[in-house]
Specification:
GO molecular function, one term: ATP binding
Distance between the termini: 55 Å
Strand order of the largest sheet: 2-1-5-4-3
Radius of gyration: 50 Å
Strand content: 15-25%
Shape: rod-shaped
Main location: membrane
Order of helices and strands: HHEEEHEEHHHEHEEHEEHHEE
Helix content: 55-70%
Keywords: ATP-binding, Cell membrane, Kinase, Membrane, Nucleotide-binding, Phosphoprotein, Transferase, Transmembrane, Transmembrane helix
Number of strands: 12
GO cellular component, one term: plasma membrane
Catalytic activity: ATP + protein L-histidine = ADP + protein N-phospho-L-histidine
Structural class: alpha+beta
Length: about 450
């Protein structure tokens, strides 16, 4: 289980890499040790030969000769001086020379190969070593010697190097492990604990992480997580408020529907009046009350989290646009805003008339309210027929939508385009159009005005 953790894997990889580095150091070190060992034997042989050459007749007693060879660690010594090869010291050899090594021009790869060949050799061989004399005391010096002492020295050196490598690996890995635990693993564990803690109660703002990491990358991660948690907490609070508001609206809509139904019954009696003014107003009043009742019923259905499927029926575009213009004109607070519906020339549309009325009415109302707060202007509504459906364009000459509203223009409570607005109008309109399989989009927005497009497809999609 430990090796599956970040700390365990890092510790294992650290040991492996450090050991690999030590092996890369070990190989040339062994070769270097062998060269130094043999070179030392040649230097001792040179000193022994110089001791012999210092005598009067270049002769020493057999006992002294044996002692010189033993101190040098060789079996015989050959010195080449002035193109002459002389056997300076020698002892009885019980075996022939098995291998000759020349240290003068050997490459690094050759020295490494010879070192490991010596370590892996099982026979007690006799080897000859050739090298250059120290300080120019001749052209060449050769010495024959038994190989087992060299092999034993190499293995002893190798064991010491491996032990030292193991100690260095353990110490290095431990230090790196502690450093990684301190600067990486612990902050990451803290990050994971914070995520779990926040997930238990995301509505509690006290559980939002406070960036503390000393590593730049982890600090950026904690900062990003903090922003996400803040945004999520705000969204959850907003959803809770929206749910509470939905419950309240459902209750109000229920009572309001009862009131409007009673009012609608009273308005029905007004139709029987003989007063010309009452007869002119009564149909419009009944039409408005009918729409209000339908809106309350739709709100109640929406509060039950049930989608209201559009009731597709043919209706006249001119009639719908005229109703919108008349209703919004009556709501004008002053005469500085002009609302005009361009002729649709008898165009019929197959859609839910009540829902499309609400969509167009919301768009016109938003434009009217924005222009009333400014210097007035003109609103144009135009219906068009396309090969694949119908379009309704709503254009105005107002001040345009504020930049802060563009990113969330169709989101409830976030896309409000005027001070004090809730942003529900465009959100509801977008949902109603999407229910028809269509699309509501903002085509233009500038200081010269804004333009919305409602596209409704033909058929059932």
């Amino acid at each position: 289980m430990f090796l599956r953790s970040l700390s365990g894997r890092f510790l294992l990889l650290t040991i492996i890499f450090v050991m690999l580095a030590e092996v890369l150091i070990f190989v040339p070190s062994v070769a270097r040790f062998r060269v130094d060992y043999l070179q030392e034997r040649l230097e001792r042989s040179q000193i022994a030969s110089l001791s012999l050459l210092a005598t009067a007749n270049d002769m020493v007693e057999p006992e002294l000769e044996a002692e010189l060879l033993e101190n040098a660690g060789v079996l015989n010594i050959v010195l080449r001086r002035n193109q002459m090869r002389e056997l300076i010291l020698s002892s009885p050899m019980t075996a022939m020379v098995d291998q000759t090594y020349d240290l003068r021009d050997a490459s690094a790869l050759t020295l490494i190969r010879d070192a490991f060949a010596t370590m892996l050799q099982h026979r007690d061989r006799v080897i000859r070593v050739m090298g250059a004399p120290v300080k120019g005391a001749g052209l060449l010096i050769e010495a024959a010697m038994h190989e087992p002492p060299l092999r034993a020295a190499l293995w002893d050196y190798g064991r010491r190097i491996l032990l030292l490598s193991a100690v260095i690996s353990v110490v290095t890995a431990s230090l790196l492990f502690l450093a990684v635990r301190r600067f990486m693993v612990r902050p990451m564990e803290r990050l994971v604990r914070q995520i779990k803690n926040y997930g238990d109660a995301p509505e509690d703002s006290r559980r939002i992480i406070q960036p503390k990491a000393t590593v730049a990358e982890l600090f950026e991660a904690e900062t990003a997580l903090q922003g996400m948690e803040i945004q999520l907490s705000q969204s959850l609070r907003q959803k809770e408020r929206l749910a509470a508001l939905g419950g309240a609206v459902s209750k109000i809509s229920h009572d309001l529907r009862n009131i409007l139904t009673t009012t609608q019954l009273l308005a029905d009696r007004m139709e029987s009046s003989h007063d010309p003014g009452v007869q002119k107003i009564a149909p419009k009043l009944l039409n408005s009350l009918s729409r209000a009742v339908n809106l309350c019923e739709s709100t109640l259905t929406y509060g039950k989290a049930q989608e209201v499927a559009p009731n597709r029926r043919p209706f006249a575009m001119d009639h719908l646009l005229a109703d919108v213009v008349e209703a919004e004109t009556l709501a004008l607070g002053n005469g500085t805003v002009e609302i005009v519906a361009l002729p649709a020339h008898g165009l019929d549309v197959v859609a839910d008339e009540e829902q499309i009325y609400r969509v167009v009415s919301n768009l016109v109302r938003n434009a009217r309210q924005a222009m009333e707060n400014a210097s007035g202007g003109r609103i144009e509504i135009e219906g068009r027929e396309q090969p694949d459906g119908w379009e309704i364009h709503v254009r105005d000459s107002g001040p345009g939508l504020p930049a802060k509203a563009l990113d969330n223009i169709f989101k409830p409570f976030e896309g409000n385009v005027r001070k004090g607005g809730t942003g529900l109008g465009l959100a509801i309109s977008e949902e109603l159009v999407a229910g028809h399989g269509g699309k509501l989009e903002l085509l233009e927005n500038s200081a010269k005005g804004a333009a919305f497009r409602v596209w409704l497809p033909r058929g059932e999609g």
